[in-house]
Amino acid sequence: xxxxxETPTPAASxxxxxxxxxxxxxxxxxxxVVLALVLLAxxxxxxxxxxxxxxxxxxxxxxxxxxxxxxxxxxxSWVAVGLTAVALLLAVANLYPRGWKGVLIAVVxxxxxxxxxxxxxxxxxxxxxxxxxxxPIPGTIRIATALVFGALAGVLCERAGVVNIAIExxxxxxxxxxxxxxxxxxxxxxxxxxxxxxxxxxxxxxxxGVGVAAMLAFFSLRYHVDQVVVGVVLVAFGYGITSFLLGxxxxxxxxxxxxxxxxxxVDIPVLHEIPYIGEALFGQTLLVYLAYLSVxxxxxxxFQTRWGLRVRSVGEHPKAADTVGVDPIRIRWQAVLLGGVFxxxxxxxxxxxxxxxxxxxxxxxxxxxxxxVIMGRWHPIYAALAAVMFGFLRxxxxxxxxxxxxxxxxxxxxxxxxxxxxxxxxxVGRVRAPAADGxxxxxxx
Amino acid sequence: xxxxIKGLTKRFGSFxxxxxxxxxxxxxxxxxxxxxxxxxxxxLMNMLYGLLTPTEGEILLDGExxxxxxxxxxxxxxxxxxxxxxxxxxxxxxxENVMLGHEQTRGAGVLNRRAARKQVRELSDRYxxxxxxxxxxxxxxxGVQQRVEILKALASHAKILILDxxxxxxxxxxxxxxxxxxxxxxxxxxxxxxxxxxxxxxxxIGDKISVIRRGKVVGTAPPSASENELAEMMVGRDVQLVxxxxxxxVGEPVLKAEGISVVDPxxxxxxxxxxxxxxxxxxxxxxxxxxxxxxxxxxSLLGLVKPDAGRIxxxxxxxxxxxxxxxxxxxxxxxxxxxxxxxxxxxxxxxxNLVLDLYRTDEFSSGPALKLDKIAANAKARIExxxxxxxxxxxxxxxxSGGNQQKVVVAREFSRPLKVLIASQPTRGVDxxxxxxxxxxxxxxxxxxxxxxxxxTELEEIYALSxxxxxxYDGRIVATVSPETPREQLGLLMAGAVPGGxxxxxxx
Lengths: 445, 508
Known about the structure:
Chain A: GO terms for molecular function: transmembrane transporter activity. Chain A: InterPro entries: ABC_transp_permease. Chain A: It is found in: Cell membrane. The complex is a heterodimer of chains A (about 450) and B (about 500). Chain A has about 450 residues and is mainly alpha-helical. Chain A has helices at about 20-50, 75-90, 100-120, 135-160, 165-190, 195-220, 225-250, 255, 280, 285-305, 305-315, 320-325, 330-350, 365-375, 380-400, 410-415, 415-425, and strands at about 5, 55, 70, 135, 265, 285. In chain A, about 65% of the residues lie in helices and about 5% in strands. In chain A, the strands form two sheets. In chain A, strands 3-2-4 form a three-stranded mixed β-sheet. The radius of gyration of chain A is 25 Å and the shape is globular. The N and C termini of chain A lie far apart (about 55 Å). The relative contact order of chain A is 0.14. Chain B has about 500 residues and is of the alpha/beta class. Chain B has two domains: about 5-235, Rossmann fold, CATH 3.40.50.300; about 255-495, Rossmann fold. Chain B is globular and about 65 Å long. The chains are: A mainly alpha (about 450), B alpha/beta (about 500). Chains A and B meet through strand 1, helix 1, helix 11 and helix 12 of A and helix 2, helix 3, strand 11, strand 12 and strand 22 of B.
């Protein structure tokens, strides 16, 4: 029998030909370029320094008993240069690891760059009252709280297949009603002890967040309006309605409506005494602890419960869910509304940890949350970590504003956004959103 | 459980998809539902499964009338369905897919994955359906995915199992296995409704055959009926099952692929070092089960994706870096495998679709303006020549039947001079009459000296058209054989059996 004319590849079991994917080559080139730029910047920072003496105030604010501690910043600069050089060599040799190891190296290099940058920024002190470095953790936590809640809201919605651009709108509404409820509780509900008034404010934030979520769900799930369009409209609506309502508050009744009682710090025994980080992490408000707990809670909910399995199935393949008796529309409603709870809490943190509501005070942080969702690959824990990183960058800008001469403030305020673009566009790699994200589900009949 | 359907009717607007259908399925019976694509088989089954609500008529289970508000109700009543397009969540494990909808929990809604795995193992032992409960569905072969679908139905205690075109995505060997599984299920008392348009399968497994045409049951037949008899019932007229063609007049190699490799967006190497030649005046058939790299190979030939390694040349000229527009202009004709996605613009009219890749030629435009009269004249001519059944040239293509949509694509590709014709699944979802027509046109194109490359997962089509058959498996061309090769042997090659291996195939 001679049916086989030719067999170009004799066996299916032969080793796979080595083909390098173009995307892989691009990734390596990108990595080399970025690392080289980082290295150049670090070297430049070092060379610019005349007097490497730097002062820090990591233990707390400047007082007589707590003067700035001075140290030689050269070590930090050189370590950073060394670390970056090693990473660059790995990248050039195409040995830069993938997965969590790669991320770890990136984080280490990033911290090194942060250090080298700070050394340059704070070096060459002029006079006795030269600015000293302060602890970045408290500021990071303050901003990251909102971002983490926003990211969790985004993860919940998008895992169910609903794109939530409206987080910013939920934030602003949550901030406003958080303030109103807290103020109202102080003035009009004398039965509530002062400590619990801002907690009542949180309830207001949640209601507002859920309200906006309900609008998102109503238009996108019931009427299949494009989810991105609904989201953008809801952001504009949130800005508009809160500005309008703020304008309606008469000056003499401001106390009653927009003078919130703030959340009080609660020290966690033992933990808050850890030097440097204890006070910042564990001498916080209830809302911050709630954020700590929410991240694992959402993870558990999504990956270990029946409801979570159904949410994820609906976000990936709603028809498959429907054919086994799971109603995709119902599950999506639930996920969007629960997301609204978290987004509302995030919004409330703006007023209940800093003070009165002001127009457009959320300043685009809702969109940063969205970036954290993508960077965290739609995973609650990674998204929360990304949110913390963005919070850190945002705080850096605030901290460095006193060094305006050396570092242009406007450029710094763009930093978190630049980092977002680089991170999301360049290095998150092949992210895969839930397959049905943003697609309306319609029954055939 | 005995299923009886009485006068079931489904209308979509003025269109009657199912017209007063009567059907009885006895317990433990394999009932075959035979019909062409678009005959209304799936509509009927979707009503049985609660996905569609009947306009009229009733469904009786063991004599009791039932109504279903959704698939959940049908499942609860004991009807399970394996859909043509699998209803599996790719990123979930087998166990998660099986448990979805009736999840085992430890109370308070916390998943009990161990119990789910145990259930999968028990069911797979009992019905001899081997699957790994912890494998991710996206990582397992299509045949195994189908087993998962069957397990899903069994896990919800289905007494009646609907299999909608289950063999379309399987290798001949996997089809044999499926037949075995169906017999096993039958032996254990499950009734099966088996939907297909493949006559061979119906005769092999069916206890009773009902034939559906244009939404009506046109008759029932015993499995002993001849294939021609069944085909005639299905189509409504005498059909020719074989294409008549002369021996090929083979010329020089026109399209050459050398060492093509393609990496897909997920980073998997899906085309592995593939080389072949397509010669003038010859049809090269690329056989293989869906998902073995054919799609990516074809896309790389046309420039829709750039090959990550290798060289493609047309009459000696390197075209590996060409985009689709340049490739088309070089004289490559392309009939894509998914016409609604790549072949036409559904909301555009027949007339517009007929010039989708020609509008920029001098014939149909001058400067920025289209020559509308020429386009209209072209449409008129093509509609006549290719017997496209459409109300008018203004009708949107999306509203034509599958066969006529495909004819629009074919007519357009054949309306310019071609050096190479690449046709992927040229008759998928096309009625038997149109299949005949399209096959004849392809052979005619071959006889004009065009090099033709056909990709098909249907062995019938491969045999009907090819002068040489290349078999793709796991991203490679594992063998190139002559069309005299027996089906069994080709089936083995498609399943990855190595020529010259223990199965006794000889290597020349």
